[in-house]
């Protein structure tokens, strides 16, 4: 699960709409600054929440924003996201996303009688085609074809052999057992799918997204010291340097926007 904060910040640059209302001047200005289209914005919100992922276009411009401005934008866009994810448009897109992830029902297996029939048809066709082809071959090549045809004809006889294990009742039992296992797996997957993606209700997905952010952002040491090493800024504390990119991005975002995102997300979580 990727970052809630970063998605909130990135949506500042991707959210060109809030339901059917006009863009407010602040968001319009940022959208223009970051050259983000409204269509891209609509696609990005669901993919960010569901991915889970995040995307910050033109990150160099983001770095030039003042921390106070970032925090305020986090709050503003947080409200915009809350409104949009309850809209008919978002629910429709969510339901399609849900349907795309629905487990597929296992295909009915073929049992011995059907397998035998198909195998006999295949062998018969191959024999017929080779016999026709053989009539056009030079005499010195016909012997080889005749051997192959003879082997195919023997295989055709063996299909009807009652002792052939490939087409026995035991084989049908194994096929049925394998299919039963697939059906049980499918039922489990369907239960998990219905729980993770209830119809018309993206709340479980949103809750998971928020909870991951709260967990990842709870122990950021914003007073951590950095040092320059070979032209790169690294943490003096080696334990911090081993932290994942998500933790480091929270650190770089700064305490003010991270705390604003945490307060907002905690309140939102209570409402879900």
Structure report:
This protein has 272 residues and is an all-alpha fold. The protein has two domains: 4-101 and 197-271, no CATH class; 112-194, no CATH class. It is 68% helix and 3% strand. It has 13 helices and two strands; from the N terminus they run ααααααααααββααα. The protein has helices at residues 4-14, 25-34, 38-50, 59-63, 67-84, 88-100, 112-134, 139-159, 169-196, 203-216, 238-241, 245-253, 255-271; strands spanning 226-229, 232-235. A two-stranded antiparallel sheet has the order 1-2. The longest helix is centred in the C-terminal third of the chain and has 28 residues, at 169-196.
**How would you write the strand order of the largest sheet?**
1-2
Individual helix count: 13
The profile of the biggest β sheet is:
2 strands, antiparallel
Order of helices and strands: HHHHHHHHHHEEHHH
Class by helix and strand content?
mainly alpha
What's the helical proportion of residues? 55-70%
What distance lies between the first and last C-alpha atoms, to the nearest angstrom?
18 Å
* Unreliable spans: 1-5, 8-23
Tally of separate domains: 2
Give the averaged pLDDT, no decimals. Answer: 80
**Alpha-carbon Rg, integer:** 31 Å
Query: What percentage of amino acids are in beta strands?
Result: under 5%
The number of E-state strands comes to 2
Q: What's the overall geometry?
A: elongated
